[in-house]
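Example 330.
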Amino acid sequence: MPANLTPQYLSAEERFKHAKDDRERMKALKEMLANIPKHKGTEKLQADIKRKIARLKDDIDVKKTKGGHRFSYSVEKEGAAQIVVVGPPNVGKSCLVSSLTNTHLEVADYPFTTRIFQPAMMPYEDIQIQLVDLPPLSAEYCENWMSSIIRIADLMMLVIDASREDLLEQMETTLAILEGFKIKAVHANARSASDAIAWTELKTIVIANKIDLPEAGENFKILEEFYHERFDLIPISAQIKDHTDELSIKLVNLLQIIRVYSKRPGHDADFSRPFTFQQGSTLMDFAKAVHKDFAENLKFARVWGTGVFDGQRINKEYMLQDKDVIELHL
Ligand SMILES: Nc1nc2c(ncn2[C@@H]2O[C@H](COP(=O)(O)OP(=O)(O)OP(=O)(O)O)[C@@H](O)[C@H]2O)c(=O)[nH]1
Ligand SMILES: [Mg+2]
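Predicted structure in complex with guanosine-5'-triphosphate:
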């Protein structure tokens, strides 16, 4: 959390937390956005507020169209990050999630096999990433509740079937449906989100699946020609698990997850369960994650890691590094 938030911002945040209804929540969020100091240190927080505004707007719209009846799904986030898996029908989304998570999901050779979201955990070293398999996005039939799940993910895998000749059309249709949800798929290496409140920019990689089938290699070249600048394009076969290990590594790298291990003074570090953070998080984020007493009463901390002396004292603004061991002192 950046230290220089204004009193106006903090008061709006308090009102947001205690808001009784959507209207109050929206008003408070807009005030938070108007009063947040605009600089690099608050980019993450600004993007987070914009996402909340967009999501709340969606909820309000849905309630209006349903005559006040709430119709919205959400997947409880678990693990170090959440990746949504989207794409046209029958391209192998569920097969991919099964392969990456070693879970059994329903896979079948006809469209609309998947009817509801299905979360599953992908293990990677000592962390887990949550993948969310979804029903297909198609021009004929598309489930609106999916937009609220997709927009809050940390990353999107847009899966297409490379064995089919229409793979450019698969891309266009999927991107158009997402745009209808006010979600813009952007390159996974893109910097932070844009300023548009109503839009969510979601980091995306494109998975060209079924690369084991004839024609898929040639089709992939066409995809590259049209989309190589806009997205990372990954050819794989979910079914025969070709290149799926490389894909897991790629996903974890793109998510820029930082692991931190806690250490109590006078004890060894606890390597059994890392705390995980996004890049750019600070010592205060770690203190808050351990316990609110640490966040409120932290005197100092020591770190063991790379680029520091063993046990070096660090201040609250210290940027967490992957595999840091940190000892908090009250
Ligand atoms: N040859 C080949 N077939 C695959 C591959 N991945 C999936 N399939 C097959 O493609 C069909 C559809 O797979 P699913 O995983 O059900 O596809 P889906 O995208 O989840 O489909 P919906 O849930 O209907 O949207 C199944 O018959 C799979 O066996 C692959 O890499 N290679
Ligand atoms: Mg499926």
